[in-house]
Design goal:
Rossmann fold, globular, 10 helices
Length: 292
Amino acid sequence: MPDIPGPTSHSYFSQRLRLHYVDWGNPEAPPLLLIHGGRDHCRNWDWIAEALRADYHIIAPDLRGHGDSQWVTGGSYSFAEFVYDIAQLIHQTGMAPVTIVGHSLGGGISLRYAGVYPDNVTKVIAIEGLGPGPDKQRERTETPIQPRLRDWIEEVRDLSSRIPKRYKTLDEAFQRMQAANPHLRPDQARHLTTHGVNQNEDGTYSWKFDNYFRTHTPYGISVAETHELWSKITCPILHLRGLDSWSTDPRKDERAACFKNAQYVEYENAGHWVHHDQLDGVLSAARAFLAE
């Protein structure tokens, strides 16, 4: 493979949105899709991509409302729309069948897509990709529609008057990134910050993601429907979890029973961003799983 210094940027369209992705080259190799989490961006995968690019054709998208992809007019972000975007990316690039690695929200999208199109996915690595425990999710989705809709209206109205945080310098934004995840090395935090901000006209810096993403839509795929989709997945799955994270062990509730062929690996000294906190361990587990 030619020595390419970095990924190339591309765009595709989904529901009239211009969405961005980076392509790490090596198009003759098996396809590997990397999907980031909420309030993140595609360049958070750079360390994983650098390590695996010789063996895979890696594409990493910016989800709608994130990174260099467009924000949604109206500000509603649901799982169905995110899954549609990934379905469009795979369809338009001809990547299927594809292996998918997803973190957090990206893991949730990956697993739902694999349930909708099981023949299109060869393997999934879900890093902290199951979301809150089922009881927490039911608490949200089973709230009666009147208070749920009212709370959403108030939340969106509040966000409409919220000005995106502005940092006077790039270093100030870097310090915020470092504080948000103390497991990050300084070089990791600076890299994530550099690719995660835009410079405003007045010279300050703001995060690229849309603040409206912070809301939870008052409708969506229920817990039972999510479990049904997971049960449709036919490919092997590797679940990775950090022991310092807020996530709970799916083997201690009904979620593990939804998956026909799943492995589980846990990491000490790792929070929600396991692939940053324990990069070598994640790469070792990923390589072994993908080689099976």
